[in-house]
Amino acid sequence: MGVILCGRHGRSGITGTCIHVHTAIQNKESIKTIRLRMKFDGAKFELIHWVCPICDGLYKDITSEDEFSVFLTSMKACCGGCFDEWMQFDNKDIY
Ligand SMILES: [Zn+2]
Ligand SMILES: [Zn+2]
Predict the structure, then answer these.
(1) Which of 31, 64, 65, 79 sits between 20 and 30 A of 7, alpha carbons compared?
(2) CB–CB of 82/10 below 8 Å?
(3) Of the bound ligands, which one is closest to the alpha carbon of residue 21?
């Protein structure tokens, strides 16, 4: 897990999100349904990202490591503090 420099929270842990969740956090918009996706690469590290329903649909179509790599390049690094605040912004359905 890396560190990101946030204008509001200083040095914060990175939370991985899709571009739509990232934009919603920036604009303080609501996304009602959000899903947590997790990928383990052996025992070395775990990669966690939060995705909107659109990206969740794309995720489900992934059938290979290559497709997963492409999917990951569309993910954004978000400040963990901003993400936590956004999560408390309204009630979200998490799967
Ligand atoms: Zn998305
Ligand atoms: Zn922040």
Answers:
(1) 31
(2) no
(3) 1
